[in-house]
Amino acid sequence: MKPIHKIATSATVAVTATLGFSVNALAATFNPSEVQYHKLIVAGDPNGTPPDSPSNRVDPNTTTSPFAGVGSLFMDLGGGSGFLCTGATISSTHILTAGHCLDEDDNGTADFLPNKVRFNLNFGSDLSHTITASALNINPDYTGFLNPTVNDDIAIITLSEALPDGVPIYDLFRNPVSEGETFTMVGYGTTGNGIDGLTGGASFNVKRVGYNNADLFDVDDEGSGVNEVFYYDFDGPDPSTNLIGGLTLGNDIEGSIGPGDSGGPSFVIKNGSMFLAGVNTFEFTTSDEQIFGTFGTGGGGILVSSYTDWIDSIVKPKSVPEPSSVVGTLMLGALGTGSWLKRKQKKGA
């Protein structure tokens, strides 16, 4: 899974950028002054033990898959070109994704009209449903990918109609993520393997699943001290590929992300239930010589728990009391009933 995937007719072009690295925890561990970023599932060694391949990571397009609520996104630039990203359902009419998926020129604002953004479901069949957006909301603190940081790269797409019955709706993980927490990452992006890197194209109807651990975190760039960004490394069987965390989860388990996986979910499992804990937004290398998607590279994204208030303000806006109810409350108070009528403000569905 990596970042945004530009699609122009049959060709695909991944966007890359360089950033002076400022994450103290990472710098203390493997000490590069710069890393190469891809905006955003890559499988293990095809000859490893056990052997692995991208086809082993494909999640079938059934109605019973726990990942049936993860869909592909198409941002239409016109003329047969646009962006492919990934998004996940967080209500019957809302999709959580990456901010840069909606921001072509990296200035922090959406560059598409809502009717040029489409959410594609593969619910029981390939491309079973396509729903156009009615509104786009990028987090207000997002200033563009690597402009100057990777923080706040999160967005919500409001759909023009409700999702079909039975599509999973994912609850947000509202607690801080612990170091070493295992993430289940899902996306529609470019795939490959840890030896050769990225070898296969992105697809609107083929989603893959991989796993990795949240190894390190970076804090809010606005100064609150709260963790906003997570990082992981893509470990191979050779411990020399271990950059920042523990050893591999297993050749047929550990994964990374590729272009088109941007905006896809990272889930955690708690007490048998699955929660949406992260939004996948980037991968990185530590040198110009490294090939994206190979063992020894890494990736990361945005921690959902740091943005739940903002998400709720869009998905679950507080209701406003009806004028008649307000008047009724004031009258009761004036009559000296000895008690206040307290309206419990609901968070809307």
Automatic annotation (TrEMBL):
- Residue ranges spanning the membrane: these are none
Residues covered by region (Disordered): 42-62
N-terminal signal peptide: 1-27
Gene Ontology biological-process annotations: proteolysis
MF terms (GO), sorted A to Z:
serine-type endopeptidase activity
Q: What is this protein called?
A: PEP-CTERM sorting domain-containing protein
Q: Coiled-coil ranges per the record? A: none
* Organism listed in the record: Aerosakkonema funiforme FACHB-1375
Q: Supply the alphabetized keyword list.
A: Signal
The protein's matches in Gene3D superfamilies, at most eight in alphabetical order, are given as: Trypsin-like serine proteases (2.40.10.10)
Q: Which residues form the Peptidase S1 domain?
A: 41-316
